[in-house]
């Protein structure tokens, strides 16, 4: 498991006076990882992006071959990607060897002196759809399970492309990034599963709040 590439970006004008940092640029050489973000990286909308629970966005290298596959009668690629697609989904770290069904909420990884913890899946938004001129893309990302995930920084330090990343602690073994995503976007409400995930201490506060609201509604309905 290793870091294939590192990308950072700052907010720029994107669409109808809105800004975005989705068009990140590759980093050559070492870069400092702080508790809020990587050096030189900032988020445009801090309501849904950034913060300590979402300081680093990770996307698996392996998924880009899926998005480049030809489909349909015309055999066209799912997405038009550049020759080197790393960073195309706005991720800070493009990783090799880790995917959503084998990475769990709360898993802790070390890369050199930097220590990172998985907090939640990524929620794709309209900005990703606008970038690729494909309005269905957020739905495709969610239904395929290829969302990537966010990580908080437990220990700051320097990282660089090509470095090995090693798991040093297991998280909530009932809740992979994939199963967490499925519960979040699923239509069926299962109170026991909701409570199990709410009890996972490493889960981001924003997703915990969402699951707690759903759990409370479910419990109220049980009382009726």
Structure described in brief:
The chain has helices at residues 63-68, 126-132, 137-144, 177-185, 191-198, 205-223; strands at 2-8, 12-15, 18-20, 25-26, 31-33, 56-60, 70-71, 76-77, 93-96, 108-111, 114-121, 149-155, 157-159, 166-169. It is an alpha+beta fold and 224 residues long.
Please explain how this structure is put together:
The chain is of the alpha+beta class and 224 residues long. The protein is built from 6 helices and 14 strands. The chain is 25% helix and 26% strand. The mean pLDDT is 92. The protein has a single domain (2-172), classed as PK beta-barrel domain-like (M1 Pyruvate Kinase, Domain 3, Beta Barrel), CATH 2.40.33.20.
Query: Sheet with the most strands?
Result: 8 strands, mixed
Low-confidence stretches: none
- How many domains, in number, for the residues? 1
Quote the beta fraction.
25-35%
What is the number of strand segments? 14
| Overall mean confidence score, pLDDT | 92
Provide the helix percentage: 25-40%
By CATH reckoning, the class would read Mainly Beta
Main features:
alpha+beta; 26% strand; two-stranded antiparallel ribbon; M1 Pyruvate Kinase, Domain 3; eight-stranded mixed beta sheet; 6 helices; globular; single chain; 224 residues
List the helices and strands and how they pair.
Layout lengths: L1 E7 L3 E4 L2 E3 L4 E2 L4 E3 L22 E5 L2 H6 L1 E2 L4 E2 L15 E4 L11 E4 L2 E8 L4 H7 L4 H8 L4 E7 L1 E3 L6 E4 L7 H9 L5 H8 L6 H19 L1
Parallel strand pairs: 6-9
Antiparallel strand pairs: 1-4, 1-9, 2-3, 5-13, 6-12, 7-8, 10-11, 10-14, 11-12
């Amino acid at each position: 498991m290793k870091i294939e590439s590192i990308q950072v970006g700052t907010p720029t004008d994107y669409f109808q006076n809105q800004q975005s940092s989705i068009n990140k640029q590759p980093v050559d050489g070492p870069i400092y990882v702080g508790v809020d973000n990587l050096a030189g990286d900032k988020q445009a909308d801090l309501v849904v992006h950034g913060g300590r629970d979402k300081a680093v966005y990770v996307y698996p290298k392996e998924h880009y071959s899926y998005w480049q596959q030809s489909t349909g009668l015309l055999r066209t690629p799912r997405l038009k990607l550049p020759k080197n697609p790393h960073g195309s989904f706005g991720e800070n770290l493009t990783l090799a060897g880790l995917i959503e069904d084998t990475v769990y909420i709360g898993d802790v990884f070390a890369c050199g002196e930097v220590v990172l913890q998985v907090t939640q899946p990524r929620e794709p938004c309209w900005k990703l759809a606008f970038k690729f001129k494909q309005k269905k893309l957020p739905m495709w990302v969610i239904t395929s399970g290829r969302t990537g995930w966010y990580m908080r920084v437990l220990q700051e330090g320097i990282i660089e492309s090509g470095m090995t990343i090693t798991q040093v602690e297991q998280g909530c073994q009932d809740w992979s990034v994939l199963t967490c995503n499925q519960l979040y976007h699923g239509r069926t409400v299962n109170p026991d599963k909701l409570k199990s995930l709410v009890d996972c201490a490493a889960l981001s506060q924003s997703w915990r709040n969402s699951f707690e609201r759903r759990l409370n509604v479910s419990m109220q309905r049980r009382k009726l």
